[in-house]
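re: ur question from earlier - yeah i can do the single chain one, its not a big deal. heres the input i used so u can compare w yours
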Amino acid sequence: MRNLKKILAMALALVMSLSLMATAGAADFTDASSINEKYETAIEVLEGLGVFKGYQDGTFQPQGSITRAETAAIIYRIVTGDVKDEQVGIYADYNLFTDVPSTSWFAGYVNYCANAEYIKGVGGGKFNPNAQVTGYAALAMILRAIGYTANGGFTNLLGSMVTNPGNFFINLAGSLTIPLFSRGQNIARLKGAKAQQQQAMNNFEHTLLSAAAEVNNYCVALDKTASKTAYLTEQVKNLEEAVEATNLLLAYDGKTTYLEVLTAQSSLLNAQISLLSTELAREQALINLYQSLGGGR
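and the output i got, formated as C-alpha cells:
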C-alpha cells in the first residue's frame, strides 16, 4: 500500500506540473460544464498532450464509463507519443485476439499494447474490447505501461530496473512535454518548409515556362527559315536563268551591254549568299531546338 501511495503521489505531481504547459483545455469539449473541477486539470493536460481525444460529437462524457479498447488507446498514445495516431495502423493486422478484427478502430491500439504486454486478454483468445474497464484493471495497465513491476520497482522500455523512480517520472514528463516546448519551433519549421516548397514550385514553373518558350521560339525560327530557304532557292534558280539569258543576249544581240550581264551575275551572287545564310540559320535553329529538348548537352 505504501508503494501504491508513492506511485499515486508521483503521478499527481506529474499531472500538476504538466498542467502548466497544456495547450488546450477541458473547455474545448462541448460538455465542459459537466467536468468536475477536481479532474479538470488532469483532463486539460492529457487533452492538450493529445492523449485524450474525446468523442466525435465533441463531448468528453466525464460521467460515462470507459472501455478496455479506449484504455488501450490512451496507453498507446502515452507510451509511443503518437498522439496523432499516424502509426497505429501498422499494428492493426497483428490479430492477437479473435474479437479484435483488423478493421475495428481500436485494433492497432489493442494489438500494440498486448504485444508489448501492457494489457492482457480475458482468456480464450479474447480481449473483450467493449467491456467496461475496472479501476484496478486500468491501474494495472498503466503501471505496466510506465514500467512498474510486480517486485515493487520500475523498469524502462528496455526492461532494465529503474533504481530512482523520481528520475524516471521526471524523464517521462520531459519526454511528454517535448512536443509542447518545441511546438513553436515545429510550426516555424513547417512554415519555412512550406515557403521553401513554394519557392521550389515557383522555380520549377519558371523553368518549365522558360523551356516551353525557348522550344516554341526555336520551332518558329526553324519554320521561318525553312520557308525562306524555299523562297530563296526558287529565286536563285530564276536568277541563274536570267544570267544565262543575259549572256546569250550579249553574244547574239548587240543591244545588250556587258554591264547588264554583271548586274545579273551580281543579283545571282547576292541571292546565293542569302540562301547560304538562311540555310545556316535553319541548321542553327535545328541544333538549338535539339539542345533545348535535352539533346547534345
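The chain has a mean pLDDT of 74. not sure if urs matches, ping me
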